Amino acid sequence: MAADSGQCTVLVLLDLSSAFDTVDHKILLHRLTFSMFANNIMSKVIPFLHGVPQGSVLGPILFLLYISPLGKIISSFNKVSYQLYADDIQLYYSFSDSELHNCLQLNSSKTETLIIAPKHKVSWLKQHLGSLGSSSQPSLRNLGVLFDQSMSLDRHSRHLVKSSFYHSRNISKWTAMLSKLFMLLFPLV
Predict the structure, then answer these.
(1) According to the lineage, what is the superkingdom (predicted)?
(2) Residue 161, pLDDT score
(3) How confident is the model at residue 106, as a pLDDT?
(4) CA atoms of 11 and 1, how far apart (whole Å)
(5) Which of 83, 99, 103 is nearest to 91 (CA)?
(6) Residue 129: strand, helix, or coil
(7) 63 CB contacts (<8 Å, ≥6 apart)?
(8) What is the DSSP code string of 43-89?
(9) Residues 12 and 91: beta-carbon distance below 8 Å
(10) Which residues are registered as beta bridge partners of 116?
(11) Are strands 88-95 and 112-116 parallel, antiparallel or unpaired?
(12) 122 close to 115: Cβ distance less than 8 angstroms
């Protein structure tokens, strides 16, 4: 990890507005015909007017096929790593202090940023990252996991424990209620 070698890392989570609903089907079908054509047989085409079936098993796969050129574009930038999962895009950029002046500026109200660096460098980095630094948060949720600046996962663990107690309490309430209901429906003869 970059932190082990004294580097700082900026994690940027991008939000694509209505990503599944704005898919251009001509482009998607072109990519599918290119990747799904085998033995002179093309798979059956299901007509959708707009979007990708969100919540379906194929939805995230179809969307990743649709945005696959984005990965090639991101890869062309030196030292920028990325991960794509459905409509979640994560950009990682690790750098030393001296490289900070070469960073791109991003200005988006839907962008979430987490700066992973030693505590004494965080405020300095926020100032020098401009709008990207001002959108920085002490922690953020990424694919269901709560990350913090120290990458300790303490906040995530506390959240899981709290959530587990909440759900356990609800289950115990339902257990008592269901026992009474069962006795009403199936009384002992």
Answers:
(1) Eukaryota
(2) 93
(3) 46
(4) 13
(5) 83
(6) coil
(7) 19, 20, 23, 52, 86, 87
(8) PPPPP-SSS--TTSSSHHHHHHHHTHHHHHHHHTSTTEEEEEETTEE
(9) yes
(10) 9
(11) unpaired
(12) yes
For the segment 94-114, what is each residue's pLDDT rounded down to a tens digit?
A: 776 556 555 544 445 656 777
- pTM of whole model > 0.70? no
| Nearest-angstrom CA–CA distance, 5 and 19 | 36
Which two three-digit tokens encode residue 50? 């707009």
Sign of CA dihedral 135, 23, 88, 68: negative
CB 116 within 8 A of CB 5: no
Average pLDDT over residues 70-76: 82
Residue 3 has pLDDT above 50, yes or no: yes
Position 35, amino acid: S
What letter represents residue 47's amino acid?
A: P
Hunting for tokens 């794509």 — which residue is that? Answer: 84
Cα–Cα dist 54/57, whole Å = 8
